[in-house]
Amino acid sequence: MALYRSIATIGGWTMGSRVLGFLRDVLIARLLGASMVSDVFFVALQLPNVFRRLFAEGAFNAAFVPLFAGELTNNGRSAAKEFAEKVLGVLLVFLVFLTALIEIFMPSVITLIAGGFAENPTKFWLAVDCARLTFPYLMFISISALLGGILNTLERFMATASAPIALNLLLIGALFGIMYGWFPDPGIALSTGVLLAGLGQLIWLSIICFRTGLFPGVPKLLLDQKVKRFFLLIGPGVIGAGVYQINVLIGIRLATELPEGSVSFLYFADRINQLPLGVVGAAVGVALLPLLSRQLKAGDKEGARKSQSSAIELSMLLTVPATAALLVLSTPIITVLFQRGEFGPGATEATAMALKAFTLGLPAYVLIKAISPAFFAREDTVTPVKVAVVALIINVVFALLLMPYIAHVGIALATAVSAWINALILILILIRRDLLFFERLLCLKLVKIVLVSGVTASILWGLSEYFSSSLVSNSFLGIVTLIFLIIIGLILFFCLVIFTGIMTWKDLKDYLRRD
């Protein structure tokens, strides 16, 4: 399957999940606002959700796909299935032990990741109860990641990309139940929805994987050399591929020390930021890794380098204009999407400032997703982890320096700075190893993309000022105006892309056909 068609498939289903996620977050903002319950639920959700993003979009896929693809190519389907069964056997033992341990010591875990909650016993113990409900989601989603890795290797991207829709549907159902008074405790109801969503995703992927004939039906507890190799790769890969998620956890821990609502401000801002990151970044990373793995195993180094350059070009083409648009439309977006019910103008302003700070690092976040497969496809997870450690230290230092002056916005800004440092170091390493080459044409296109994005953003800012009276909360006119601005921005950007020669109409059509 063509790289661009794979990216479109993954990105399309991810977009569907994000749209449902926005509906979910709009309902949460309306019913809970930036309150004690919302802060607690977001902490309880992030605990397993960070692991979900690490496994489903990062380390598990990065370590498993090259090894599974190698077994499938070199030794056939039977050997590949047996390898998956061995990985599943060891993984199950680890997950059961980890889940039991965390459930028992959940009060200590909440103290570690949300220490600021300890000052309010009601808030603290509600967080413990909610987290105990959400954490088993990790077990379901980790097994789902293994099944997703099998399907991604077979280029069955649709099943894996569509699975997160179950989480949003169940949480939306729980929110309607809360709205109509069916569930007296909103935090517990939402946390239960997360648990059931994990089970639903596992059942869905199991059915699809079973049809391929490679479903690992009987786990085998055998730690042979190949399985050891997998777990050696996945260890540092958790940090190397998931530095952004680790930064999010650090941000939550620091935010719990700030005034009530800070966790929610960061959560809602990150949800908007996650749209281009999830749709573009995750799609590029997941689609690129199997392609690079096959090209490198076939000895096609030049093809692998071209695929890497194409992924960077496409990532920036889709991400830089999104960054520029989010910077100028952050307040209208938060106003129209969230400002209603318990979510007032003060919460809107605080969330919009956090969104601007997160957005400054958006191209870097996506570059990391597009560059990391170059290491993982070569079974090198050590280099990214070394770079990630540097980025993590910088993130913590900057957050601690900025928090006294700009509160939660400092946490978001520190995350953006560390992401850029992470991305730039990885690029320099690839260039020094002669694994990445920025040709003159690619550099020229990247410069044009930045300039065209700046022009588009300037026009969008002018239009948003002109229509400012329409961009108000709880208004159908506000929603229509925001959609109008987004459509105008997209049309204008791609017209400028064609006009400046970044792409031709033929290029746009070929993106879904190119091998």
Please give a structural write-up.
- The chain is mostly helical.
- The protein has one domain.
- It contains 20 helices and no strands.
- It has helices at residues 3-32, 36-57, 59-75, 77-104, 106-113, 121-134, 137-153, 157-162, 165-179, 186-212, 225-241, 243-255, 262-297, 301-338, 345-359, 362-376, 382-432, 440-466, 476-499, 505-510.
- Helix 3 crosses helix 7.
- The termini are close together.
- The mean pLDDT is 79.
Secondary-structure map:
Elements: H1 3-32, H2 36-57, H3 59-75, H4 77-104, H5 106-113, H6 121-134, H7 137-153, H8 157-162, H9 165-179, H10 186-212, H11 225-241, H12 243-255, H13 262-297, H14 301-338, H15 345-359, H16 362-376, H17 382-432, H18 440-466, H19 476-499, H20 505-510
Helix pairs in contact: 1-9, 1-13, 1-14, 2-3, 2-6, 2-7, 2-10, 2-12, 2-13, 3-4, 3-7, 3-11, 3-13, 4-7, 5-6, 6-10, 7-10, 9-10, 11-17, 12-17, 13-14, 13-15, 13-16, 13-17, 14-15, 14-16, 14-18, 14-19, 15-17, 16-17, 18-19
What form results from the Cα inertia axes?
A: globular
Average pLDDT, all residues: 79
> What is the percent of helical residues?
over 70%
Question: In the residues, how many domains can be counted?
Answer: 1
Tally of DSSP β-strands? 0
- How many individual helices? 20
Q: Helix and strand string, N-terminal first? A: HHHHHHHHHHHHHHHHHHHH
Q: Report the span from N to C terminus.
A: 7 Å
Cα radius of gyration in angstroms: 22 Å
The major pleated sheet works out as: none
- Unreliable parts: none
Q: Structural class, from helix and strand content?
A: mainly alpha
% residues in beta strands: under 5%
